[in-house]
Amino acid sequence: MDLKQLSYLVAVAQTGSFTAAAERHHVAQSAVSMAIARLEQRLELKLFERQDRKVRITAEGEVLLAHARRLLQQSERAEREMEELKSLVSGEVRIGIPFMMGSYFFPPILMAFKHRYPGLRIAVEEAGTRELLSRMSDGVLDLAILIASDLPEQVTGQRLVREEMVAVVGDEHPWQGRASISLTEFFTEELALFRRGFYHREHMELLAAQAGMTPNIAFESNLIPLLKAVVRQGFGVTTLLRMAIEEDRDLFAVPFTPPIYLDLCIAWRKEDPLSRANRTLRDFLLEQCCPP
To answer: Cα–Cα distance between 277 and 88 in angstroms, integer?
Structure first.
């Protein structure tokens, strides 16, 4: 079987019609029918059920369809990489970044990358850790900034930066100016935290469970400006990465005792070799965040 036959197979399965598949590939309907017939003859399996004008893929066809899609994706990826090998004047990188990192850490680094490689397109998506992992699994993202200790088996990565999680309070809160606070003190306060699905929230809930406490959550939001506003108005305290409040003069970071650090890494899928453009972005991030 060849890639053209497999592309016809995918088109027929998607459209449910030999005619529509032929129109998609700009060929005669007979060319698609003959290609599928040769596949069925070679495999000695029936790939489609033909009833009147309707075409339905068989169970055997579904198995081949899954392989066909993977092979076609790999072929497209290989073509893109061969094109990129000519020079890094074209191509696209797709990277996912957690909200705090996207807003407060990576913009200048990504702009520096764009300045060095002006021909490359950069597609950036911001989301929570769980959503970034899902998008990587679906092939929507090639790279993502994730928690190093939380990578699933099918994902690998290299450490970029270590950041401290701190309690965040307003200028009238009694903790303002404290050298540190305990987790017990933190969990007895009214809290403004991210919604579930964010590693930051899940990590704090895990720490609370380990301490035998239930967090007193008064506000939930995925919007960092809203969490900050709640803290400014004195309606609660929150926890963010230290970088997220470095430019906020009316918010104050209070470290935990013992301190809490998160190791963030640049991650990618193990089974999918990165294109040259994505390797270049990965190496650039490592160069900027982890200089020798």
So the answer is: 7
Under the banding of pLDDT at 50, 70 and 90, the label for residue 220 is: very high
- This prediction has a pTM of 0.64
Report the C-alpha gap between 287 and 207 in whole angstroms: 33
Provide the token pair at 204. 């704090």
Q: What is the C-alpha separation between 64 and 10, in angstroms, rounded?
A: 9
CB distance 242 to 250 below 8 Å: no
The runs of H, that is alpha helices, within the chain are 3-15, 18-25, 29-43, 59-86, 99-104, 106-116, 129-137, 183-188, 199-210, 224-232, 276-289
Quote the tokens at residue 257: 């005792």
List for the chain the helix, strand, coil content (%; round to 5). Answer: 45, 25, 30
**Rounded to an integer, what distance in angstroms lies between the CA atom of residue 31 and that of residue 104?**
55
> Do 84 and 91 touch, CB atoms closer than 8 A?
yes
Better-scored residue on pLDDT, 3 or 53: 3
Radius of gyration of the chain (CA): 26
Q: What is the pLDDT of residues 233-270, one digit of tens each?
A: 999 999 999 988 988 999 999 999 999 998 989 999 98
> What is the rounded end-to-end Cα distance, in angstroms, of the chain?
49
Instruction: Look up residue 65 and give its two tokens.
Output: 């369809």
